[in-house]
# Entry
Amino acid sequence: MARYQNVYQYSRRTGRGDAGRYGRQGSYIYGNAAPKLDIERQLEEAPKRRLSNEARKNREKAHHMSLGYVLFLAAALCFAGMILINYIQLQSELTNMAEYLTVQERQLNTLRVDNDETLNRINSSIDMEEIKRIAIGELGMTYAKEGQIESYTTEGNDYLRRVAD
# Structure
């Protein structure tokens, strides 16, 4: 299928003034052979804008830094470096403390489990009936009678120690 292209409309739409070079304005090109654009040549031929003296001076000033500004930047860089190094050291110390705390908690849990196991083993090994038999039979102990029990009240959370009959 043949394609028709209006070069004049193309040049108007894109803003390129190539219509005069490839044919008269309003003429059509028949077929699939589109005109080859030479972009490199157009860029070379394009007039370069000249900078004003003020703009040129401003650009030159921007390329040169004074000694004071360089020293300020160096001091700011050193200060930022020291802060970052200190931050990294604090993070490392915090990580080490967290690991130490984990180890200590693990040891505490192990000791608690061992202590509970030992208490249960001791409680299970005590035979209360055997203790009662020895206390009554061999040592002559008896249960307390009605007049032997004395009650005391204390003020506060202190304990009571009796030193005399």
